[in-house]
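Input/output pair, single chain:
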Amino acid sequence: MPANETGRAYDAVIVGGGHNGLVAAAYLARAGRSVLVLERLDHTGGAAVSTRPFAGIDARLSRYSYLVSLLPPKIVRDLGLDFRVRARTISSYTPAERAGRPTGLLVGGGEQRTREAFARLTGGDGEYAAWQRFYGMTRHVAQRVFPTLTEPLPTRDALRRRVGDETAWRALFEEPLGVVVEKTFADDLVRGVVLTDALIGTFADAHDPDLAQNRCFLYHVIGGGTGAWDVPVGGMGALTDALAAAARSAGARLATGHEVTRIDTDGRHAEITYRTADGEGTAAARHVLVNASPHELAALTGAAPPEPAEGAQLKVNMLLTRLPRLRDLGTDPREAFAGTFHVAEGYRQLATAHAQAAAGRLPGSPPSEIYCHSLTDPTILGPDLARRGYQTLTLFGLHTPARLFDRDNDAAREELLAATLAELDTHLAEPLADCLATDADGRPCIEARTPLDLERDLRLPGGNIFHRPLSWPYAQPDTGRWGVETAHPNVLLCGAGAARGGGVSGVPGHNAAMAVLERD
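Output:
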């Protein structure tokens, strides 16, 4: 923004140019409102970006967020986005050892093939039948809950009526998820595969009474009304690039390198103070939409901070010269890594890891999930790398709360990364290190991020990828009509910390824009 435009008035100023802020900007600008987006970094996109993290290597990785499920097709259609996702051919693979022999559970590739995989692992058809019943229940809930995410918040009773299945409601909304998992499945490995969706970015046990694990599970199984998690074609940055283009073409102004330092409001008009490399400036607005955490909102408005937030994940990006061979000789690595590759995620293993972390120790057998996006979308690799068979790997580690890194983040990161890769190696016929590519400086192509790293890089409070504990998708006493309202009538929260936030969804951005347009 040119210095001589400081103090200009807008209908809406959006603090933060992540994907939710860009969604809000595009909707408001298309509705004829004057919109300014102020972004601290030198680029938009927030956590939904694609970068080339390895020196001299033409591999464009979704560096932080990496899969799409919760983005409503409505937003893509409404904003005319040039953006596509591609389904993964395999849902998941979980290595195991039975009767002293390496094997695994491959879910995907057709119903018959999945049924046979369950039978080989468990010795019968019971677990597969239970799997079908359980995920039939979650699909029923997904079909009814997902469309409500871009509507005003329903009441709890209204959503319960909409679900229309008391057994499902009790299992997912009222009892700890561990209850239904243990009632439904007998096999420890199968139980663990189901539970993992309740733990992504959430530090919880299967039986936690506050049901944080249930809320996390719910958002992981309702996406698109199916629960499918798809790969963004061109990487996650393809989405935020399309959103930025849509916002600009509608007339919104996107100002990068502008760090907002204060918001002053009387409830009707607001002044936003920002800092650039050239000094300080201000902008006036009737509405302010904050695409940042509730903690950041409190700091900007001078309010008391909310309860501390804490992330609980290890994020690792890698580039390989080839996929490693598996100890399970009956499974092709190109299928095993095409979906979600589970490591140390048996039900008892997850409980043990949680207990160790809760006691202040890094898990001895760190649980993690691995994804190979380049198998589904090879366009993220340069032509030469694709021709030579290179592949990307993204690893997401569980049960590693931020508190474990407080004393020495660098040392704890290295210790946890080594233990996590060692756990993966127990299922491989060759060390993963032998498959790692090297960058232009001869360094292995691997980078790891702890919760404290994410707090530093992205200002996620405590490294929490959801900004704070996830909310139920129904109204609470303090959520307001759209779930984006704050103590200030003209200041709205449009980031992951809004009700029904979290994940790459655009839902809080859409809902904040709808709240503004409704008021106008």
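The chain has two domains: 3-49+233-306+465-519, 85-232+310-458. The chain has a mean pLDDT of 97.
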